[in-house]
Design a protein that fits this description.
The structure is a homodimer of 208-residue chains. With 208 residues, chain A is an all-alpha fold. Helices cover 76% and strands 0% of the residues of chain A. The first copy, chain A, starts with a helix and ends in a 7-residue tail after the last helix.
Chain lengths: 208, 208
DNA sequence: AGGTTAGTGACAGCCGCTGACAGTTGACAA
DNA sequence: TTGTCAACTGTCAGCGGCTGTCACTAACCT
């Protein structure tokens, strides 16, 4: 059961989040001030900073949620799966259930548009990459535990996750600049790229 | 031949750079203000911003140089080498010649210490990762041209570079937190990790 | 109903960064 | 050498992100 106070807090937070994303996606991240966001929700600037650590934080808040869902999905994968397979499945599963993950806070539509804003805003892209790096570290530990190896001496968990993350980023980037910017296309694109990693590494591309 | 004006400019720039790195590495990036850096060189804050785009910029200036050297090294690799092999050789070569690349501006010692500061400062790490992403894009294009494939339709150049970059970052991170933080150890570590990527991807780690 | 606590607004201030303008110093030709 | 022009610098004023402080209001809990 949720008390009135908690309900109010949640509503303010989500209002701020929605207003921020709406402004960021429509008029750009840099051209949006914190004052503007606060004004749109009719709270003081100070209050904004009580809910979010900063402008970057609110911009990446939803990504944070989906990343958490991804980590949880990796944890939930059956133990018999090979590492890379587990990552692949968890990732695709994340996109399948994206609606349930996100819609309670902001429309999925807005979330997708925000992805493009992040990718095209240097400051946000930097923050996003840093977050991704942190998530990769978490997943490396999950993987290490799953496989029963020591993450501090065996580099394989981190290497596998780094490679996976690299492929994901290439997919994301391609997807953001692509024309069919839909929920299905990111799934197929990522799956396709994951299949092609092998041939990209070993091999002479010229004999294609 | 260098005119007096140019000499003065170069000296101011390098003084600012050295002072900044010295302050960053000794008392921390966030605890160092731009005013402090300017004061250490006895110029106005405004002048600092005429030489560097910002605080981040000066912190990553040397990394920028070494990345440029790396890109050049990739370009100079013989055409018969396979893509991943070319990247590997160029990277190791970059560390072999690091002294010539860096010492004319700042002591290598300082450059190495700065690496650790970057890795342990969220804002700098974010900026560093963003720069790396940009460099990866450049290298993907170099590789594509080398191999005669179209970078816009063939994902393999970007995938290969992303994987390589991922391994590099794992190495760097490990190296920064390691005890033998020397010029040789990053070489051996990277080479070792590049060799292990294969087994990290394919394979069941539990049968080790 | 009344004391306690959580959440808010208003204000002051630091820091990174930028635009505008005036002063100074080196470059180059008369 | 001197005068002119361009480059470089300092000063000042100001914006936006962010934080500390403190008084005030609203919800919570007997």
């Amino acid at each position: 059961m949720e008390t009135l106070r908690e309900r109010k807090k949640r509503r303010t937070r989500e209002s701020l989040l929605r207003a921020a994303l709406e402004l960021f996606t429509s008029q750009g991240y840099e051209r949006t001030t914190v004052d503007e966001i606060a004004e749109a929700v009719d709270v003081s600037q100070r209050t904004f900073f009580r809910y979010f650590a900063g402008k970057e934080d609110v911009a990446l808040a939803v990504q944070k949620m989906t990343e958490a869902a991804f980590v949880a999905a990796v944890r939930a994968r059956p133990a018999h799966e090979a590492p890379m397979q587990a990552l692949r499945q968890a990732f695709l599963e994340g996109w399948d259930t994206i609606r349930e993950t996100v819609e309670s806070v902001v429309p999925v539509e807005l979330y997708l548009r925000m992805y493009r804003t992040i990718e095209s805003t240097p400051a946000l892209l930097a923050a996003h990459l840093r977050r991704s790096a942190a998530t990769e570290e978490t997943i490396a530990r999950v993987l290490a535990e799953r496989e029963g190896v020591d993450v501090d001496t065996d580099p394989r968990p981190r290497l596998a996750v780094a490679v996976f993350g690299g492929v994901i980023r290439v997919s994301e980037r391609r997807w953001c600049t692509s024309e069919d910017f839909g929920l299905e296309s990111i799934r197929t694109l990522t799956a396709e790229y994951l299949d092609q990693v092998g041939s990209a590494l070993t091999g002479n591309w010229r004999t294609g």
